[in-house]
Amino acid sequence: MPRIGVFVCWCGSNIAGTVDVSTVSEAVKNEQGVVFSTNYQYMCSQSGQDIIKNAIRKHNLTGIVVCSCSPRMHEATFRKTAAAAGLNPYMVEIANIREQCSWVHKDMLTGTQKAIVLTKAAIAKVNLNSPLTPGESPVTKRALVIGGGIAGIQTALDIADAGFPVDIVETKPTIGGKMAQLDKTFPTLDCAACILTPKMVDAAQNDKIRIYSYSEVEEVNGFVGNFDVKIRRKARYVKEELCTGCGLCTEKCPQKKVPNEFNMGMDNRRAIYIPFAQAVPKVATIDADYCTMLKTGKCGVCSKVCTAGAIDYKQKDEIITERYGAIVAATGFNPISMDKFDEYAYSQSKDVITSLEFERLTNAAGPTAGKLLRPSDGKHPHTVVFVQCVGSRCAAAEKGKEYCSKICCMYTAKHAMLIRDKYPDVEVYVFYIDVRTPGKNFDEFYRRAVEEYGVHYIKGMVGKVSPEGDVLKVQASDLIANKQLHIDADLVVLAAAIEPDKSARSLATMLTASMDTNDFFTEAHPKLRPVESPTAGVFLSGACQGPKDIPETVSQAGAAASKVIGLLAKDKLIGNPCIAHSDEMMCNGCSSCERVCPYGAITYVNKEFRMPDRTTLVRRVASVNEAVCQGCGACTVACPSGAMDLRGFTAQQIMSEVDAICK
Amino acid sequence: MQAISSRTLVDIAAKKLASGEVSAVLGWKKGLFNYDVTPAVFTDEKDLAENFVYTDFCAANLSKYLVNETKKPEYRADNRKILVFLKPCDTYSFNQLLTEHRIHRNRVYVVAVPCNGMIDLTGAPYEKCVNCKSKKAVVYDELVGENGEVIDSNRFDEVERIEAMSAEERFAFWQNELSRCIRCNACRNVCPACTCEKCVFDNPASGLENKAISDSFEEKMFHIIRAFHVAGRCTDCGECSRVCPQHIPLHLLNRKLIKDMNEAYGEYQAGAVEGSRAPLVNYSENDIEPAEAVGKGGNNA
Amino acid sequence: MKVSYFPGCTLKTTAKELDAYTRASAKALGVTLEEIENWQCCGGVFTTANDEIATKLSSIRALTEANAKEQPLVSVCSACHNVIKQTNRAMQTDADFAFRVNNYMRMQSDTYTEYHGEARVMHFLELLRDEIGFDKVAAAVKNSLKGKKIAAYYGCLLLRPGKTMQMDDVENPRIIEDLIRALGAEPVIYASRNECCGGYVALDSPDSAAKQSRKVLDGAISAGADLIVTACPLCRYNLIKNGKSDIPVVYFTELLAEALGVKETEDAQ
Amino acid sequence: MHNKDNVTERVLRISGVNARRCMKCGKCSASCPSYDEMEYHPHQFVYMVESGDVEPLLNSRSIYKCLTCFACVDRCPRGVEPVKLVEAIRLEVIREQGANHLRADDVPAKIDEDVPQQLLVSAFRKYAK
Amino acid sequence: MQVSEYKPRIVAFCCNWCSYAGADLAGNNRLNYPAEVKIIRVPCSCRVNPSFVLRAFQRGADGVIICGCHPGDCHYTSGNYYTRRRMAMLFSMLEYLGIEKERTRVEWVSAAEGAKFAATMNDFVETVAALGENKRLEDLRCKR
Fold first, then answer.
1. D residues 23-62 near C, CB within 8 Å?
2. ipTM field
3. What was the pLDDT predicted at C245?
4. Whole-model pTM over 0.80
């Protein structure tokens, strides 16, 4: 039989001013289970808590109701009080007679009557409470970072620095990501490779970091602290441990006509290749789509020239399984396709390029060795037009993206400035809708492009680019002059909107991490938990969460790492005991609960049941992962049989409150 | 008249039984009178030949029986199968049960049979046949005759008629209908969506348990909650109304929900596609607000 | 195959050859064009104001007739096609407009059945590409146009608004070029091929139309074309009027009829 | 004379345009083939209607210069459809009795024998009611 | 007018993270609303089973209101989206059975919207009071 104590707090006059507290404590004396009832000035004070503790011990209370301020204020306090007196902390219920009673009602009679009802509801509930113990789960002290761009590298370095092992999975043959393709970085104009490649080397040399390049995450199971991840190591037909990266094979390979993706297809590479000089790992990879040996069995040049004997045409994809305590998504971004914006003639002229292509064009290691030359004829351009917001801020979802891509204003200013710096003879026009430069030293940077370098910034958009002969006729508006402009350009550079990498969607499904309509990962809270996914143990780093520049990416990468470190530093995870629980005798295995669970906390197991006829029956039943469930209760309503219930907020408890209130 | 004769179906089933491919046949068995047809399991060819019928009185939807049939030890033991005859509308129920993992697909051999509509003992067609929604069998291992098409039926007309009433009229209408309920549970027991291991209405812990009709609230509660429990899972097979001894048009409750969900969240037919996600276990960020879902019907609420 | 055919007024007067070559080519390709009974002028341009109903009823009548016959509605004049397709789209997407149109139509006929844009509207070019197939067209060619450098001129009405017309990439179309290739000739690509010829302002501001047309002609000529093809009588008028016979401008169907070897037959007269 | 607020409201209604969607990028005006013929340009139509300043537009010859080529519609990143505003304002003018911009009497002087039917029909539809 | 002594009974289900906190804020700011409103705390509005709503009416409630985080702001990311669908269907069904639609309501109240919470409750109580006692969903056995 429950033995319940009721403790009514005056809260000075905060409650007692509008609620007759002694009437309340008196009125509930005969409620079911109540064996003790009292009131006191400040229940949360040390002496108030002592009253509770003493009563629990003296009256062998099995549950208590504290009538006081909001549970959001002192529920935790009174739970500790109860625990100190040997009572399970979840045998405590709060009747909120301050915020939701004395403070919102004026007269004593009304306030007192309502306080009594609220107290009775809490008593009815606590009658049905049962002791709860939070679950514990171990933590595997290893992290997985998915994506090896600057976001992933920085996150991995920071985690490793705290002493935890970390693996990077990168789908390309080398880490480095988009930043490796960039020339200079704003607003300081230092060279991207100079600041990135040392970090790549650090990652490679750090004994806490393992890099799985040319690999993809195949499957994720488990939950926070214990994710089991299958990683596919794609066959690169080169033994990574033997290849010295000498590059001889990449010079001798007879298949020379493979578009070089690192240079945005503006030149060619061989079928066996190392993406760029500072690649990490510096290991050759055979492109199976182009390799004559793999396709026809005839060639074998690379194998012949390789003194290390690293070539292995028989190599197969390999699946490895590893357990991780935390996972960081750092899958990055790509520029969108320009197919739907052919008014800019991207598909019609080689001299209309995207900004990322322009990066390669000005990069000393790029296809033109850093000389600004037109892709079509290799001539020096005299007039260059930049178009901003191509596909960004675009309401038509079938064409572009509704959001601002955030980085374009700054890199365009950088490009314009770099051209004017190296080639003062080139006229540079930038067509913009707004110039957005929030960031340290950003606006100063943009102003320098205008004031010191004489870049023509024109408020307006380009309507059409018409390739005519070797000229690009640009028709645009100048909104401030209220004129339509016609410029004969030699090169047009489009600031293409950026979008999350295509792999993010399938990864999100594997991780049961949520995404927004644009396929950016969603944060657990947009303001207060910006680097965590709502799925426990999954963290977000870099542009996979939203458009970001390098400084912002690096700081977010560090923030994600610190969250990971905080998790891995724990030996055990203590859960919230108010979570869902399925009664397997009643469960139909219908999957309704699984479909509404935002956390993927519900799985199904085939369970054996003894039947009355002594046979066994295997039935599919739901099983709640206590470490993953957050206790929202969505599943309890989806469940048609009522097998699913929520501890601490059971259907019976809530109905008993309803009954008490309506009595 | 059904286009397919009992003989044709008996031949199919007998052949499968004889070959050992199936160990039982779930079908319809004739009784004393021609209208007296009951669902039955046949295990030998003789019984099948003598007693199996497929006539205009075979309205019963057999899919629900498979939930318990396939649990029986003989099917669990090895890969033995039960053959079932399903009319087009029954295949939706079967598919829905597959979606909910209530039936092991590999333990069942489905023979889809065409249906020209079924009649009651007075010879009148059942409501569910008058407003037949589909002649298309959506799942089968073997198809007898030609497969039909989904029908653009007028099944929501009656719901619309009630919606157009005033609140008083609607209340009076349902008070009149539901007050006849005797809580016999026939609707629940026949419903292919009601296959819970333990029904909430039989479970004292659910707070909803009540076995006898004792107050006008009780029947409303029972029918609203039942409609909700099958919402998004009800294929509109019409069995609830067919078996109701009090002739309460229970399908109008389920159809209201189907209509509402179709209008608010896009067309959805439970059981049409195995594994599909029902509207109430799904959402969109731009869903209508509850306040927008009401007030479309008659005046003065 | 049998389709409903909406010729339009210009095809009965100054652009008779466009009509004749279309019919001859269709026949040669095994397509029956069933002319809409008592068709009325489409109005020449689509009025974008959503309170205008009367100006769109002629399209509705043609659409409902084709729909009743369960045939696609084919036209060859760019303007007619544009008006009909935009009207049909409005019937699909603008419930208010459709409601009012249906009410109006019901007043005129008791047998009128509610229409919501179910009919399929096709330009003759789309018919060639999507139903017949350019490969079939190529196979039917008797007189290859090999060696000819031909500039396709789309103008605006064939392609825009892109969301409604859905014929091709608005900014970089290829349907006429593909047809030119199918006929054995070499298409000439130039940027102004989807620019407006000046259209109806030719009457009110002839200078403006002249400027537009010159831009198109210059583009085609400097790209090396020796012939321009178009689908629109108004485009052709503007280009010829402002072209000073630099370059011939003909209907694409004339080219088609020629290649199919039916240009001189009586069907084309 | 036109009541200013009523006209703006009517223009927005019959055009179905939501001028507030405009982000003032000027791509419509960058695309407009008749730009140099116009006193007010497509982006100004949008801005002026949005701010209720329609009077100058009603009195401007710009409304007869639009080719209705739909380039502004196709290229607008926000789906504003400026051409519909130009058309609505022109209708607002010519729907007034006696305000036709093109009269049948004017036609003979303007045409030659090759003029296609279509030109007359569309010009009348655009310029007269 | 006979506004008299009739006081409707209102059950308000509030989610812990937004609406319950919004109600607390109404208290902090001393914003009055009728004492007939009694709040039941649930972790998320999606915990509210349609049967709880019916239970409340059975036991004598005259109005039931469910408050949750604004769509898109759910602490559990998607709980209130399910609430929105379930309650839309429940309310429509109750209306279909002739129950006054004003007796049920869903309102999104954030933790910052104390004023909205109080205003919502004032309005809801007034609306339900105007309807009078809940007769159409009453259970005579539970009558006082």
1. 33-34, 37
2. 0.69
3. 66
4. no
